[in-house]
User: Fold this.
Amino acid sequence: MRNILKLILKYHFIIVFILLEIIAMSLVVMHNSYQNMLFFRHTSAISTSISDHLPAFEQYFNLKKENSYLEDENLKLKNELEKIRTEIRFSFSDSLAENRSFDVDYVYLPAKAVNVTINRTKNYLTIDKGSNDGVNENMAVCSYQGVVGMIKNVTNNYSVVLPLINTSLRLSAKIKKNNYYGSLQWDGEDYRYSYLRDIPFHVNVEQGDTIVTSGFSSIFPEGEIIGYVESVDRVTANFLLIKVELATDFNNLYQLYIISNKNREEQTELEEKAYNE
Assistant:
């Protein structure tokens, strides 16, 4: 209250001037029909304009709630789609369809990024899900834009992700239109681009072609978007060097989802047994 009084005393001339202006304008409007008509016409137009834009303002302030709802729905749809894919795959064999319940191979879990680095050669990002949420090492992580990386370390409530923009990560990727696959690895320079190698020289690759996960691992399902072909260099007589614009903007990450392969342990054990024989 004391501060308010000090403010009034400091600016009392301005306050008195504004009050007198309001009183004068009111007298002019009240005692002159023409000015009265103009005043109410303009105030009516302003009021109508505010009423028209009010729903848009309300919608804007509800965007966070709506986005959260859409993210939940998106994950539900991804899980439902995975279930449908599994049912279709096993429906081709009557014996398999009869003897196997349609348990999905992949489960999608929501997560949020809480820390991200983009200016190092070995970048990492931290997410708000850990072992208490069923997260384990070597699970895939994606955004709603595309592939992000894979889980490297896990605590009870957090996980560290090895992203595509870490020079230590190599990912099996393929050209969506023709299924030719190679190895994707970042060069440590621009976080917006990575490079796909080991694609044979004769393969038809054009700017704008979509690059996706090959599915040749126990971590990522097939077909997750990685990025788009930026340029193609014929560096040797045998293989192409393809510059890929990453679909995920690592400078604008927040909402993510973790992909859990329910059969990963079985596949890994089988492959290790075969390699060690």
About this structure: The chain has a mean pLDDT of 82.
